[in-house]
Amino acid sequence: xxxxAAVAFDLDDTLCRHDHDVNDLYRRAFEAAGVEPFGEPDExxxxxxxxxxxxxRVGYLGAGFARLAARYDRDVDPVALAEAFETVADDSRVAxxxxxxxxxxxxxxxxxxxxxxxxxxxxQRSKVEALGxxxxxxxxxxxxxxxxRKPHVEPFDRLTAALSVDPGETLYVGNSLSYDVAGAHNAxxxxxxxxxxxxxxxTPYGPxxxxxxxxxxxxxxxxxxxxxxxxxx
Length: 233
Hints:
The protein is α/β, with parallel strands linked by helices and 233 residues long. It contains 9 helices and 8 strands. The chain folds into 2 domains: 6-17 and 94-222, Rossmann fold; 21-88. One of its GO terms (biological process) is small molecule metabolic process.
């Protein structure tokens, strides 16, 4: 028997990741913008400011390209580079993260399964279709199309209403402390933080559980699993 009535997941970097050849994507973005390449993808990612803004992905990437151009003393239009990057990227090129399929199956055995993503449907739908998620879950909420996104309460309220479950009996699994864990807490859901680094601390947030792999979810969902709260992790 499960300790939860329903389980829901974030999408990007929780259930799936992009499956591009990043070096090729980076090169083609410069080609599309008509700009002589500089830097490397591994130099760009650390210059991006926090999590992507679903409403302004071009601005988010453009700020990173602007910082990278300054390092190389290049006079370029960073917004044009960001627009080119978005143009050549294929959102359908995604793959499940390790353990994701089994985690979805374990969640389905516990009760209704949902997806709550901060991206808009126009961009996230291709990922959902590529992964066959529509056949695996009972509800999908695209918070990018709502007036408020995670960590606001509204998307989580939409999610639990769509699943016809009580928020307090729902587990939300996500990789972001500031969006997924904070949002679930605000809306009264239980949270399981999927951390990328086992040495990363949950502070200043307090997820109910901490997962180092989606393979750990099945045990967490079982009432007699003895799983410990992640608040002390």
